[in-house]
Design goal:
The protein has one domain: Non-ribosomal Peptide Synthetase Peptidyl Carrier Protein, Chain A, CATH 1.10.1200.10. The chain is built from four helices and no strands. The chain has helices at about 1-10, 30-45, 55-60, 60-75. Helix 1 runs antiparallel to helix 2.
Length: about 80
């Protein structure tokens, strides 16, 4: 989780990613942020995020994104 938080904080240092659970809904993360996140997460965690997993529910909070990372890591 720490690595993910570092990636997120590089995008938006002013956001509390541990408590915010509406990153997409509140327009904190935009489409460019999502593309950047997908690339960074793929590199950092050595996973591929399939298109069907790129949905708001998976990117609305650091916790939900980390659950997706764990799920994809377990599938390898």
């Amino acid at each position: 989780m720490e690595e993910l938080l570092e990636i997120l904080e590089e995008l938006h240092p002013d956001v509390d990613f541990m408590s915010n659970e509406r990153l997409i809904d509140d327009h904190i993360l935009d489409s460019f942020d999502i593309i950047t996140l997908i690339a960074e997460v793929s590199d950092e965690f050595d996973i591929l995020i399939p298109a069907e997993e790129i949905i708001p529910e998976n990117f609305n909070s650091a916790k939900s994104l980390y659950r997706l990372i764990e799920k994809l890591s377990d599938e390898d």
